[in-house]
Amino acid sequence: MDQFWENEYIQTAAYYSVVILCMVVFLTIFELVTKYKNWDEIKNGNMAVAMATGGKIFGIANIFRFSIEHNDSLVTMVGWGVFGFFLLLIGYFIFEFLTPKFNIDDEIRNRNLAVGFISMVLSVGLSYVIGAGI
Fold first, then answer.
1. Which of 125, 100, 110 is nearest to 49 (CA)?
2. pTM attached to this predicted model
3. Which of 44, 63, 106, 129 has a CA between 20 and 30 Å from the CA of residue 75?
């Protein structure tokens, strides 16, 4: 059985499957903490929401990229990925806190592309910082 788990194709499929599952769970968490419904807004053509959500997807995937690269076991990889996600989530709340003149969620829901873009870049940028720490 050890040979089965040592096969690179099996390991890649395992990492892929677990990351997809984590991505669904983490995007659901983001859906719960935002004031808008991501997929409804994207369906209606809200590019600001699409950029913010795309940044979150990239950020989560990038954190897991670092986690896979630097950990030997699937369990350790998931642990670091979950930790990295929570740091990314904290970054989202800090972004909201540091912009007291307007509400990030309201601006993104109202199609403010500038705020959607900054949100995307923040998620991507923080994912590299978080990943470097993994």
1. 110
2. 0.91
3. 129
